[in-house]
Task: structure prediction
Amino acid sequence: MGQRPQEITLIENAQKGDPRAFEALIALYDQRVLGLLIQLLGNGEDAGDAYQEVFFRVWRGLDRFRYESDFFTWLYRIAVNTAMTHRRRRQRHRHISLDQALDDESGPVWEPRETGAAPDRQVAGKEIGARIETALEGLPLQQRAAFVLRHYESFKISEIAAIMNCTDGTVKNYLFRATRKLRSALKDLKP
Amino acid sequence: MHRLREKTLWAWASGELQGRKAGRVEAHVKGCPRCAEAAAGYRQTLEAASSLRPGLPDEAEVRLQRNRLMARIAVPEFRPRRAWTPQWRAVAVFALGLLVGLLLRGMNIPSGQTLTVTPGAMAGAAFTGLEIGEAEGRPGEITLRYATQEEHAITGRLETQAVQCALALSLLSEPRDNVRLRHIDLLRLSQDSGPVLDALLTLARQDSNPGVRIKAVRLLTPHAGNPQVRETLLAVYMNDAVQGVRILAAQGLAGAHAPTLRDLLKSGAGPALALDPATPVRGGGIC
Result:
């Protein structure tokens, strides 16, 4: 994904401190980033907090972005790192919001890839989605991040390696282990 | 019969294998029921996972988060740390070079050793990299390198003002988190270290890495009697995005200048301050 001219202009203006340019820049990607954070953290509340931290870091560190990678890759790297920090923090300090419903439904919403799916397929899809979500929740975050980036964000292995700051081989290890665990979790699903 | 490794079967089933290797695996799988079953298991898993996609969040929710973010960055304290413009870099480096030149007279440099640091050489330079290692054969001294169009270096005892100034300036423009994290501990804040104090104040408020901000706060805390330091610790306590940093700043204020924090809490700012000034209020909040 190369840098578009319009994006370069926004980056340059945002680097000079123009908040409107910054807002226009993040508006290109923030829906996808929030979606990714919901995927990685499993609920909307944590994803919202992580969103704030991600883009705050982007705002404060934008002057150090020097086009060594695509802006999108750089942004996703910050998002994945922030999600990992959040998840480690959450595992250390279990926080229960007073406003949170007992059955929090702010996690990812799964929908069939094929559009116009029949109702029975939609119902089956919801069940599969719930099983996938449970299985993904049980993965270590690196494996989950690699799996989500590969199969739901359609990044190439080399792009994931750039985002996660590791080698292609490490990404393949993460993907293999994630798929193996998912296979165990989903083995009774009929093809 | 020879069995393929599970990872190889996964790689083939998921399309990560290409060319002749994929062909060899395919040929094997056709004749090996166990490998065929394992590969089919991986393929079915990936097909099931890929048959769905996570929906994107609502545009309204995204806009809510974006508006919240933009309100926060509108606060002047959150203006980003901007990289020094080339003109200011040249001025700062020239000034540093002059300072180094003056202080060289006091440094214990063995005869025959020459430093490559001169104002002319440093003009227009920027601290784009930072490596510190023990100077060879000179215990107690470090060599600080920085890159411009050529490699340059400054060598001297860590506690000397020249080295501290160079270190402080380097840290402000060093892009690598891990380097800033490692080397901020080398800063020594003393009575006359203006550039070091400025660097620590900036790093505490504005560094993008919370670990660096924590270390900057720790280095500043013993000097909380200084009004600038106190003001910075207060700003960090009120505004830092990370709770750990805010707590540390609060401890610094409470330990070194307790009245400031107590005054805040008594001033009627509300219970939110007593808990955590940056706790987001959800739903029907108190404030």
User: Anything to note?
Assistant: Chain B touches chain A through 47 residues (CB under 8 Å). The beta strands of chain B are 52-54, 131-134, 141-147, 151-157. The CA atoms of residues 106 and 119 of chain B lie 18 Å apart. The mean pLDDT of chain B is 72.
